[in-house]
Design a protein that fits this description.
By secondary structure, this protein is α+β, with helices and mostly antiparallel strands. Helices cover 40% and strands 20% of the residues. The strands form two sheets. The protein has a seven-stranded mixed beta sheet with strand order 1-5-6-10-9-8-7, sandwiched between helices. It has a three-stranded antiparallel beta sheet with strand order 2-4-3. Helix 1 runs antiparallel to helix 3, helix 1 runs parallel beside helix 4 and helix 5 crosses helix 10. The model has no long low-confidence stretch (mean pLDDT 92). The structure holds 3,4-dihydroxyphenylalanine.
Length: 344
């Protein structure tokens, strides 16, 4: 046999073996193909090997080399077909679908889980703490009218807080004659009015949510931020109740050794009014405002100031969260940078 004829025979044998192994649909078919091509006694490869003795002496080395290559290729094709069928029986995907074979001994891929945003965590915790003190959660709209954002809160027309440049008034507002101009609420104190309008005393609520002011963003300001508002109305409520409530609140959230202090201040909807500071590592940080609900506010919602009194407070959620976690720039809360968020 000539060398060329021998090589041609081996090539067609290799192609036939490859085709038979690839098309084997199950292990029985593959075993039949294996016996046919590489069977030790009468396999076609064995037959072809006999041809090796018939090529000329000078062509022997080349023929032997070719035979070894073809033998290796056929064995590799058989091994690949065996893996394909094993993977196919373990999973519907795997090699049959073109992916790597399924290896049940490999550990699984753990999906990456997220968690609640630090501000949401803070809000949930504050609700929890105040819930234990008997405060239920009330909600109010983020788009408000001037009555709820200002008037019923005893904020007169000329007050600087009502300056259009200090608020996000909505353009559509001019057309809604019934309610007057509308704006994005600048404080959660609006919810005090909405709750008192809708129920008689006693009242014991907190409200947490977004408020909006056209402030330039810096380390302590953002045009949108969150407040926690508290309101308690009942008979014989005093400033001592306010202070002990806020002290318990601060100690529950920050830890047992936090102190609070009141500084005299002014808010139109409370009289007297105070700024609330909390102590942290020997530093006093302003957390918000508070006071005894002004009789004008009680009158505005139809309550009788001679019968009931109450206290109110409003604190910044970003502020308490930032203080607790030592975040120095509140803009971090809104960047959605996972490297920052995953630390909480
Ligand atoms: N609404 C005030 C603000 O945004 C905070 C505040 C002060 C709320 C005193 C109160 C309060 O309920 O009594 O600056």
């Amino acid at each position: 046999m000539s060398l060329d004829a021998f090589i041609a025979e081996l090539d067609s044998l290799s192609a036939a073996a490859q085709k038979a192994f690839d098309s084997a649909a199950d292990s029985a078919a593959l075993e039949a193909a294996r016996v046919e091509f590489v069977g030790a006694k009468s396999g076609k490869l064995k037959d072809a090997q006999k041809g090796l003795g018939t090529v000329g002496k000078d062509d022997k080395p080349a023929a032997g080399k070719k035979f070894n290559e073809i033998k290796t290729a056929i064995e590799a094709a058989l091994a690949a077909a065996q893996i394909r069928l094993a993977a196919g029986s373990a999973t519907a995907g795997g090699a049959a679908a073109g992916g790597p074979p399924f290896d049940p001994s490999q550990p699984g891929v753990r999906p990456r889980l997220g968690h609640l945003h630090p501000l949401t965590q803070t809000i949930e915790e504050l609700k929890d703490i105040m819930g234990r003190l008997g405060f239920t959660v009330a909600h109010g709209p983020e788009i408000e009218d001037e009555r709820h954002n200002f008037e019923a809160l005893n904020i007169p027309k000329a007050h600087p807080a009502r300056d259009p440049l200090e608020n996000f008034y909505l353009a559509v507002a001019e057309k809604s004659a019934a309610s007057g101009p509308l704006l994005l609420r600048s404080q959660t104190s609006t919810v005090q009015i909405r709750v008192m309008e809708s129920q008689p005393p006693p009242v014991r609520i907190i409200s947490l949510g977004r408020v909006y002011r056209p402030d330039a963003a810096d380390a302590t300001h953002y045009p949108m931020f969150h407040q926690i508002e508290g309101l308690l109305i009942d008979r014989h409520v005093t400033m001592a109740d306010l202070k002990s409530t806020l002290r318990m609140f601060a100690r529950s959230y920050f830890g047992g050794d936090v102190h609070i202090r009141f500084r005299p201040s002014f808010f139109p909807f409370t009289e007297p009014s105070v700024e609330v500071d909390m102590q942290w590592n020997d530093r006093w940080i302003e957390m918000g405002g508070a006071g005894m609900v002004d009789p004008n506010v009680l009158r505005a919602v139809g309550y009788e100031p001679e019968e009931v009194t109450g206290f109110a407070f409003g604190l910044g959620v970003e502020r308490v969260c930032a203080r607790r976690h030592q975040v120095t720039d509140i803009r971090e809360f809104y960047k959605n940078d996972v490297r920052f968020l995953e630390q909480f």
